[in-house]
Design brief:
heterodimer; A: alpha+beta; Porin; two-stranded antiparallel sheet; 6 helices; B: alpha/beta; D-Maltodextrin-Binding Protein, domain 2; five-stranded mixed β-sheet
Chain lengths: 483, 146
């Protein structure tokens, strides 16, 4: 019974499958029919096909022409690129130290507006302008020439309107440099040229180099930062003004850098120079050369810098005068009028973390006289009649904290850096009149890499002075440009 | 089937196929030196010190002259970002400060850096992998594309 019902269902299933297969195969039927017996197109369609073929041929021809033009242009571009490369390589040979000496010139200048608020009648007013005044005294030009791969000359010359306007603090007279042109009676106020540095450097390796000439003493941070476009504020700290460490020296410096690790480097410098003297830029008046040693370590990582350095200096300063002792033969009598030794040391620290910078410097000196001269006030260098200069010790220290504000969203690539500086200065422990306490602060705005706009103010107090009982307030603004 | 292929692909990743494909990214920056240069390899920090002129000699002792791509070119921008970790303004600021402090000037720049390296024995420069020509210069470091 069961079997009799199964047999018809098999037949039904096979029948359904065959039907389905036929249905699937059916769509190919008409196509095969079309292939076997294509119908002739109507006359109007044939014409349009022919027209399309013509257009296609025309387009193909146009395309071939365009390709030819493109190829020709590519050749021209290639040729021009080669010519450009050749001219670049000519330039490369010019600028490369491997081939020809190079010469570059750049520099900076600044213009400022300052005012010192000094109590009326105070002696400090003798050497400082009390009125709002524009200042344009820094115009420094650099000349850099690479002579060979390892030899270069660097000169930095400062052009200044000084000594015009400077004041003789003994006579309290303002210096006038006016001269008159005899041809047309026009008047010119002469300025001057000050050679900041002129040095020849031979550097055959990172760890060894020799610099000879007039060089900037490699001490501290401010002295090596050096130029107003780099410095944050408008006023130099007293570590610079007191010159406990000579700011520049004439002589020879051996220097180099070691890399104990990739992010740590150690700098050293040994200086041998004329030391300090009445004309040390030009010649020395004794055979005792001044010697100095700088050691500095710097650790740099992304957004973090730490450096600690020191410089020690020992030297003699000598002055002499000559007079005629006899006429026949002409003989000179030379007398030593001043001689002292100075032992000076400085330390500097820099910590920079995500735009916050802590910078500190300290200098200390011990001066001992062998031939004493008339006492001179520190900084002003004015003589004090009737008193001899004693041995003395002096020291200066400052700390500056600054923060380049994270204002990229607001200012883009421009930067705004507020800063605050605290300084203590006791340049001569035998005279307390010039002991100072200074507090300064301000803003440094850099709209681009070459321009710095600064505004700052400060308070300077003579902490132990009878001569200068009143503090000075000062404000300043400056535009410094590097070019 | 798709799942099997995906699984195979995932399994193959650690064995080099996709990673070598990543290493061949045309936007990788190849740091190149002259074929005759003694240096064989370097590190990003050494390169950074060289391109910022804090260092003028390879560790091996030979002198090195850094050569930049033209300012404003995509290659220069990518190199500045990847190696020096600076913006254009920060780099300009760095060179302004270096000039005033030490008389140090920015490295020379050329549009065809590879040719410059070919020409100058002491030079080190960089080129996109896509533009690198085998045999012209020696690759000492690869800065992967970001």
């Amino acid at each position: 019974m069961v079997q009799s019902t199964k047999a018809p269902s098999w037949f039904v299933a096979i029948g359904l499958i065959l039907f389905a297969l036929q249905g699937i195969a059916q769509p190919t039927g008409p196509q095969q029919k079309r292939n076997k017996a294509p119908q002739a197109p109507p006359a109007a369609t044939a014409e349009s096909v022919e027209a399309l073929q013509h257009r296609l041929q025309a387009l193909e021809e146009k395309n071939r022409q365009q390709e030819a033009i493109n190829a020709k242009q590519a050749e021209q571009i290639e040729e021009l690129t080669d010519r450009l490369d050749e001219s670049e390589f000519d330039a490369l040979e010019e600028v490369s130290s491997e081939f020809e000496p190079t010469f570059q010139m750049f520099g900076f200048f600044d213009v400022g507006l300052t005012k010192f608020f000094i109590k009326e009648g105070d002696a400090l007013a003798a050497g400082m302008p009390e009125d709002w005044t524009f200042v344009a005294t820094d115009f420094n030009l650099y000349f850099l020439s690479r002579l060979t791969e390892s030899l270069q000359v660097l000169a930095e010359v400062k052009f200044t309107f000084l000594p015009l306007g400077s004041v003789d603090l003994v006579l309290l007279e303002r210096r006038d440099t006016t001269v008159q042109d005899p041809h047309d009676t026009s008047r010119i106020r002469l300025g001057s040229i000050f050679i900041e540095r002129i040095q020849l450097t031979w550097k055959p390796a990172d760890w060894f180099g020799v610099t000879a000439g007039r060089f900037i003493t490699p001490f501290g941070i401010w002295n090596t930062d050096h130029g107003n476009p780099v410095l944050l504020g408008t006023y130099a700290p007293y570590i610079m003004l007191t010159e406990l460490v000579p700011l520049r020296q004439t002589g020879v410096m051996i220097h180099g850098r070691f890399f104990p690790t990739e992010t740590l480097y150690l700098d050293y410098a040994v200086t041998v120079s004329n030391g300090r003297g009445p004309a040390d830029e030009v010649y020395d008046l004794d055979d005792d050369k001044a010697v100095g040693l700088k050691l500095k370590m710097t650790h740099e990582r992304e957004n973090f810098t730490f450096s600690l350095g020191g410089y020690g200096y020992f030297g003699h300063s000598t002055d002499k005068v000559s007079s005629i002792a006899s006429i026949d033969p002409i003989m000179l009598d030379t007398e030593q009028t001043e001689r002292f030794s100075e032992l000076t040391g400085s330390l500097d620290l820099l910590i920079e973390l995500f735009g916050v910078k802590l910078q500190a410097e300290y200098a200390r000196t011990l001066v001992k006289y062998e031939t004493r001269t008339v006492r001179r006030f520190p900084m002003t260098d004015t003589p004090v009649a009737g008193v001899y200069q004693p041995d003395y010790m002096g020291w200066v220290a400052y700390t500056m904290i600054s923060w380049t504000l994270p204002l990229e969203r607001l200012l883009g690539s421009k930067t705004l850096t507020p800063f605050l500086m605290f300084e203590v200065s006791e340049p001569d422990d035998t005279i307390k009149e010039f002991d100072l306490l200074t507090l300064r602060g301000g803003f440094n705005f850099k709209p681009n890499a070459v321009l710095a706009l600064k505004i700052d103010g400060g308070w300077v107090g003579f902490t132990k002075s009878k001569y200068f009982p009143h503090p000075i307030w000062l404000v300043g603004a400056q535009v410094a440009v590097a070019f | 089937m798709k799942r099997t292929a995906l699984l195979l692909g995932i399994l193959l990743v650690p064995f080099g196929q996709p990673s070598s494909a990543a290493a061949q990214n045309p936007q990788d920056i190849l740091v190149v030196v002259n074929q005759q240069a003694e240096v064989a390899e370097t590190t990003p920090q050494e390169l950074k010190n060289i391109f910022l002129k804090k260092k003028s000699f390879w560790r091996a002792g030979s002198q090195v002259i850094p050569i930049h791509a033209r300012e404003g070119s995509p290659l220069r921008d990518a190199f500045r970002q990847q190696l020096l970790a600076m913006t254009s303004t920060e780099e300009q600021e760095y060179w302004k400060n270096s000039k005033i402090k030490k008389g140090l000037t920015e490295p020379t720049s050329f549009s065809n850096t590879q040719k410059a390296v070919y020409k100058l024995r002491s030079a080190v420069s960089y080129v996109f992998r896509a533009d690198f020509k085998e045999g012209v210069a020696k690759v000492v470091y690869v800065l992967p594309a970001r």
